[in-house]
Amino acid sequence: MNTVFLYALVGIGLFCLGLFALIVQAHLLRKILAINIMGSGVFLILVALARRTEGGIPDPVPHAMVITGIVVAVSATALALVMILKVTESSGQPEFPDEESK
Amino acid sequence: MGITFIDFPWAIALILLPLTGGLSCFLWPSVSKILGLVTVIGVMLSATGLGWLVIDKGVYHYLVGGWGAPLGIELYVDGLSLLMLMVTALVALGVSIYSIHYFELSYQRRFWPLWLFLLTALNALFLSADIFNLYVTLELMGLAAVALATLTGSHDAFTAAMRYLLATLLGSLAFLFGVVLLYHSFGSLDIAVLSERFESNITAWAAFGLISAGLVLKTALFPMHFWLPPAHANAPAPVSAVLSALVVKASFYILLRLWLEIFSQLDTDVDILFGFLGSIAIIWGSLQALRQTRIKLLVAYSTVAQVGYLFLAFPLAEKVGVTAWSAAVYLILSHALAKSAMFLAAGNLLRFGGHDRIADLDRVAQRLPITVAAFALAGVSIMGLPPSGGFISKWLLLQSALVQSQWGLVGVMLIGGVLAAAYIFKVLGRAFTQAPLPHEPGVVPATMEWAALLLAGGAILLGFFASEILAIIEIGSPFGAGEVKL
Question: What's this model's pTM, rounded to 2 decimal places?
Answer without folding.
Answer: 0.94
